[in-house]
Specification:
By secondary structure, this protein is an alpha/beta fold. It contains 14 helices and 10 strands. The strands form 3 sheets. Strands 5-4-3-6-8-7 form a 6-stranded mixed beta sheet. A two-stranded antiparallel ribbon has the order 1-2. It has a two-stranded antiparallel sheet with strand order 9-10. The longest helix has 19 residues. 37% of the residues are buried. The chain binds iron/sulfur cluster and zinc ion. Keywords: ATP-binding, Cytoplasm, Nucleotide-binding, RNA-binding, Transferase, tRNA processing, tRNA-binding.
């Protein structure tokens, strides 16, 4: 007996929605998925008419679905937004160069302007070169810090009002778990936010329209829409800790699909006790980017790379910031500690 779509009752169901368990036909699934993203955008008031919105585009499934859905909804509901694609080239041979080819095709398919900013032009270092110096354990720390600033700088060049990224419900739930496991209260409070306000000069507000979309549904949407995306993993992707959080979450989801939403809601509702010390935001004395220390993380990481002291930005070396700024020499012991690449 064929199963009919539980929504339209006329067409055959081709899938069971991972989020709700409903059997749906293709068209009703597209409709339900798009409508939920629209509701997320409207209820959180993510955008205002007339804004220019940069879509962080990596060529992967999340950002490709995001670009596609944003374009569809902007036209269907007349949001009045100018959309463009914003990509970061980390300089990872055999990975990012290929995925950027996908972004370039998406640019043609969706007819959106595209801006690519590269680590090489912004920082003078590619990830390939960084991995040669720091090894494969802390590379994602460098990459994550640099990417955040790179997106902001690209967005500023294009005078973008907001950046939206393809973070999905699984990503957010994973991050909640990781911050709980690390006891990182400041990040825990921020990581579930659907949008961040402008935190000062040089930081552009960001939002996550796919915050409540399940990864499995994003994959189904991309598959049935035949979207053109790139699905290879980064060749430098060890990130073991996140991997464990991910596996753990997938195990929970297999037993109870609502686990993903439950973790997000728990993260949203955890409040921080009065009197817990939170870092205060200032600006980096060197580059002007927001920072809770004298120097921003990117400047410290770069200083470490350029001086052959790759551990400088890993762990807590805040007390050295004053010396770096004043260009004072480090002691032999300090240098020795920072040079060790046994990490
Ligand atoms: Fe960068 Fe790590 Fe992501 Fe690769 S896995 S792109 S190195 S953050
Ligand atoms: Zn800085």
């Amino acid at each position: 007996m064929p199963v009919f779509c539980s929504s339209c009752d006329t067409k055959r169901a081709v899938l069971k929605r991972p989020k709700t368990g409903h059997s749906l036909c293709k068209e009703c699934f597209f409709g339900a998925f798009e409508e939920e993203v629209h509701q997320t955008i409207v209820s959180a008031r993510l955008f205002n008419r007339g804004e220019t919105v940069g879509i962080g585009a990596s060529g992967g499934k999340d950002s490709t679905v995001l670009a596609h859905v944003m374009k569809v909804l902007n036209e269907r509901y007349d949001y009045g937004l100018s959309l463009l694609l914003l990509s970061v080239d980390e300089g990872i041979t055999g990975y990012r160069d290929d995925s950027l080819e996908t972004v370039k095709r998406n640019q043609q398919q969706y007819d959106l302007p595209l801006k690519i900013v590269s680590y090489e032009e912004l920082y003078g270092w590619t990830m390939d070169a960084i991995v040669k110096q720091v090894g494969l354990k802390n590379n994602c720390t460098f990459c994550g810090v640099f990417r955040r600033q790179a997106l902001d700088r690209g967005a500023m060049m294009l005078k973008v009002d907001k950046i939206c990224t393809g973070h999905n419900a699984d990503d957010v739930a994973e991050t909640v778990l990781m911050n709980v496991l690390r006891g990182d209260i400041a990040r825990l409070r921020r990581c579930t936010a659907i949008s961040t306000a402008s935190e000062g000069d040089g930081v552009i507000p960001r939002c996550k329209p796919l915050k409540y979309a399940y990864e499995k549904e994003i994959v189904l949407y991309a598959y049935f829409k035949k979207l053109d995306y790139f699905s290879t993993e980064c060749i430098y992707s060890p990130n073991a800790y996140r991997g464990h959080a991910r596996t753990f979450l997938k195990d929970l989801e297999a037993v109870r699909p609502s686990a993903i939403m439950d973790v997000i809601h728990s993260g949203e509702n955890l409040s921080v006790r009065e009197g817990v010390r939170m870092p205060t935001q200032g600006t980096c004395a060197r580059c002007g980017y927001i920072s809770s220390q004298a120097l921003c993380k990117a400047c410290v990481l770069l200083e470490g790379l350029n001086r052959g002291l790759p551990r400088l930005g890993i762990g807590k070396h805040h007390r050295l910031h004053g010396k770096i700024l004043a260009e004072q020499p480090l002691t032999e012991l300090e240098e020795r500690k920072l040079r060790a690449v046994d990490f």
